[in-house]
Every structure is written in structure tokens, then in C-alpha cells.
Design goal:
Layout: H1 10-17, E1 33-38, E2 41-45, E3 51-56, H2 59-62, H3 71-81, H4 95-107, E4 117-123, H5 126-143, E5 151-155, H6 164-168, E6 188-190, H7 201-218, E7 222-227, E8 231-232, E9 238-239, H8 243-254, E10 258-262, E11 286-289, E12 301-306, H9 307-315, H10 331-345, H11 348-364, E13 373-379, E14 382-387, H12 393-402, E15 405-406, E16 413-416, H13 424-452
Parallel strand pairs: 3-15, 5-6, 5-7, 7-10, 10-11
Antiparallel strand pairs: 1-2, 2-3, 4-12, 8-9, 11-12, 13-14, 14-16
Length: about 450
């Protein structure tokens, strides 16, 4: 720094050195500094130095379901720190990891006469959990005498992560395939399931029939089907009928495919059931969880599979599942995950999610009257305002902050997934802030456009 010049702000220093998600390296990148967090609130400082106290409508990308600085989760991290923060998981084990695996197996979807999820692989992040699930499916097919089965069947509109294999099963148009031509695997895509709000038994049946035809045409080369059950998240916040999960299970069984449910965004109560699979009573062969697993404290994900899948792969030529992250089973992350799951086990989440869902439905209803709005929808503790055109992310984010709410819109969606501890007043502030921000930015833009015409 040149003598006599004012010191750079944290935001200026950030812009000079850091990358942010899906953002350019830019000296003008819109940023707010997070100075503190407590409960459902964040204290932000803008580039102009002004401070804002806002309700976090995003649960920090859907993970902080119990709120910030939760005393139970804070205590769990402190207790584990007193013993050790990390040990390698190759050849070693520890109590937090074993307890977490037992908890996850005990909570996993179950159905009479269907093999349950019995084996757990602990991963670093959701994308890595999906990578492991896809590798596992290919290894299973190879060990079962079908080495040619190397591709995957997914549905359009899906999102499963940003690493290469995960990216390859995301939507082939709205995903990142075009940016990396030739690198994502050539997978197979069925149509997006019908929207829950408008679906009929006939449209579900027609979709299931087309899904079955596509699977039949490619069954000899497919290892598994992978979907986000009931709610497609980053692919468009698209909710679809639970009956589609039953159809997916039937098609997978008919053609000898594994069924993978990506519950990274939907797991641990977000859609109104503990897992989205529970809406249909369907048990997948492989399931991925993450995000809310640690209550948003540390990065951790898990891949669960049936005993048959685990034993078949273990008997295969490789003799092992071929993956092993350095920080696999991190004790701090496992300890706080156990504490988070203890809170879930208390059962209060179900009442909280229902209460939040009702508040979102009523609070977002006025947005339907805005000309810029195409649709308003909710499922569980998820609320979505869909616009006709793409969101002006910078302007809507800034407007929402002025209304006391932190949101992170994308594409043509302004949405919320609030922490489960959000009160009725918090939810009211979120919905008013979302609707107000859309009206302030996009309704005025629509009016100006109409005046010009």
C-alpha cells in the first residue's frame, strides 16, 4: 500500500484475489462482507461501508437448517476438538464416524420386502458423494458381469454437482456440457417429470411410459438411473409428483439398473418428509446426502448403498470401492453431524417445516399478481417466485437486503429455503422481502417497458 493511501477494504482485497461461485474474476464483483451470524440473521457490510441486519432466507445454500451458533452444534465441535480434529480414515476408525454411519442407516428410507441401505461411504462434499455413487454403480455392473454398462439415465432439469462425472448427469442443455464439449460422458436423458401442481394420473403415466421406452432402448449400456427425488433444486426448483419415484423404481428393476437418489438438497426434512424418497415409500439402491448433514457447520456428505451392492463390488476384481478422500470421515465434521441428526431425531423439524411451508404459501401469494411473475410454488420449507425473464441478480439481491432479507436468485428464480428455526415473523419478513424486491426491480422494469411500447 502506498504511504498516505487509505487501507483497502476486505471486499476490495477479496476482489483482487479470490474466485466466487459461478462468478468472474472482477474488480466490480457485487459482494457483501459477512461480519456476524446468529440464529437466522446475518450482519452484512456493503462495499459502501453500510451495515445491514438481514434474515438468511437461503440457510447458506440450504445447509444451516438449525440456524447459526446453535449451542448443541457449537458444543459438539468443542468436545471433539478436545480429543482430536482429524485422523486419516485409511486403516483407522473413530467413534464419531461409526456413530454417524449407524445413525444414517437407521434414518434411511425403508420399505417392507425391500433391501435397506446398510453401508455408508463418507465424502467431502455433495459432488464427491455423487461421483462415488456413479463409480460404485459402474463397479457393481462390472462385478455383476456387465462391464459394458457404463452410462447413466437421468432426467432433464437435473443438477448433481460440478465435478466431471456429476456434471455429466446434469441437464445437458441448461448444465455445463456446452462449456466442456467432449468431456462429460455421453449419458441418456428422459424428459423432465411433470410439474406437481399440474400433473394428472394420465400425465404421470405418459411420462413413465416414455421413461420405460428410453430405458429399454439403452438398457444394455446403462449402469443406473440417477435423479433428485420430488424436487429438482439448482436445475429450476421443479417439484414433481411422488408417483414418479415409483415409476423410476419399477423401470430400474425391470432392466437391472441401480436406482440412485440424490438427496443432497432434499434430505433431512426440507420437502416435508425426512427424505424425499419417503413421499413415495421408495427405497433406492444408492442414496447421496450432504448440505444439511452437519447443520451447515462443516463440509461433509455421505453415500449410502444396499448390502448387496456393497458385497458385490467387494467381491469384484478390484476388491474395493475405488475412492478415498484425504479428509474422509473427518472427526469434527462427523461429530457435528451427529449433533445435527440428534436435533432432527427429536422430531420437531416436521412441525417446523409444515409451519414454514404454510407461511411461505400465504406470504408469497401476493407475488402472483405481479406482471413479471410466471409462477409461485412451494413444497415443504421451499418457496419459489418464478419470473418470465431472467432475474437481475445484483439489483434484486440489493433490494432484498434493503427489505432485511438475504436471497441468492439464479436464472429466473427468486427462492427461499429458510432455517427450520425461522419464526412466523421471520417467514413473513422473508416473503415480504422477496415479493417487494421483485416488485421493486422487475415490476418497475415491466412498467417502463410497457410505457415505452
Amino acid at each position: 500500500m502506498t504511504e498516505g493511501m487509505a487501507p483497502l477494504s476486505l471486499i476490495q482485497r477479496d476482489r483482487a484475489r479470490l474466485w466466487h461461485p459461478y462468478a468472474p474474476a472482477s474488480p466490480d464483483l457485487p459482494l457483501w462482507e459477512a461480519e456476524a451470524a446468529d440464529g437466522v440473521r446475518l450482519r452484512l457490510r456493503g462495499a459502501d461501508g453500510r451495515r445491514h441486519q438481514v434474515v438468511d432466507a437461503m440457510s447458506s445454500w440450504w445447509s444451516v437448517i438449525h440456524g447459526y451458533r446453535h449451542p448443541v452444534l457449537d458444543a459438539a465441535v468443542r468436545r471433539q476438538l478436545e480429543s482430536f480434529s482429524h485422523v486419516m480414515f485409511g486403516g483407522l476408525t473413530h467413534a464419531p464416524a461409526v456413530e454417524l454411519a449407524e445413525r444414517l442407516v437407521g434414518m434411511a428410507p425403508a420399505a417392507p420386502g425391500r433391501p435397506g441401505l446398510e453401508r455408508v461411504f463418507l465424502a467431502d462434499s455433495g459432488s464427491v458423494a455423487v461421483e462415488v455413487a456413479l463409480k460404485l454403480a459402474v463397479q457393481f455392473q462390472t462385478a455383476s458381469g456387465h462391464p459394458q454398462r457404463q452410462r447413466f439415465l437421468s432426467v432433464r432439469g437435473g443438477y448433481h454437482g460440478d465435478t466431471f462425472a456429476a456434471m455429466g448427469v446434469c441437464d445437458p442443455v441448461d448444465g455445463m456440457h456446452s462449456a466442456f464439449p467432449g468431456l462429460p460422458a455421453g449419458n441418456v436423458f428422459a424428459p423432465r417429470p411433470p410439474a406437481a401442481a399440474s400433473a394428472t394420473p394420465e400425465t404421470v403415466m405418459a411420462w413413465a411410459s416414455e421413461l420405460g421406452d428410453i430405458a429399454a432402448a439403452h438398457s444394455g449400456e446403462l449402469a443406473a438411473i440417477i435423479v433428485e427425488p420430488v424436487l429438482q433444486g439448482a436445475g429450476g426448483m421443479h417439484a414433481y409428483p411422488a408417483e414418479c419415484l415409483t415409476a423410476l423404481r419399477q423401470v430400474a428393476d425391470r432392466h437391472g439398473l441401480l436406482l440412485i437418489f440424490d438427496e443432497i438438497a432434499t434430505g433431512f426434512g426440507r420437502t416435508g418428509e425426512l427424505f424425499a424418497a419417503d413421499h413415495a415409500g421408495v427405497v433406492p439402491d444408492i442414496m447421496c446426502v450432504g448440505k444439511a448433514l452437519t447443520g451447515g457447520y462443516l463440509t461433509l456428505a455421505a453415500m449410502l448403498c444396499t448390502g448387496e451392492v456393497a458385497s458385490t463390488v467387494s467381491r469384484g476384481q478390484a476388491g474395493a470401492l475405488l475412492h478415498g478422500p484425504t479428509f474422509m470421515g473427518n472427526p469434527l465434521a462427523c461429530a457435528v453431524a451427529n449433533a445435527s441428526l440428534s436435533i432432527i431425531d427429536d422430531g420437531g423439524w416436521r412441525t417446523d417445516v409444515a409451519r414454514i411451508g404454510a407461511g411461505l404459501a400465504s406470504g408469497l401469494a401476493p407475488a402472483r399478481a405481479l406482471q413479471a411473475v410466471r409462477d409461485v410454488r412451494t413444497i415443504g420449507a421451499v418457496g419459489v417466485i418464478e419470473l418470465h425473464d431472467d432475474v437481475d441478480v445484483t439489483a434484486v439481491t440489493a433490494a432484498a437486503i434493503r427489505h432485511g432479507v438475504w436471497v441468492r436468485p439464479f436464472r429466473n428464480l427468486v427462492y427461499t429455503m429458510p432455517p427450520y428455526i425461522s419464526t412466523a415473523a421471520d417467514v413473513g419478513q422473508i416473503t415480504a422481502g422477496m415479493t417487494g424486491a421483485v416488485a421493486e426491480v422487475h415490476e418497475r422494469a415491466s412498467a417502463r417497458s410497457g410505457d415505452a411500447a
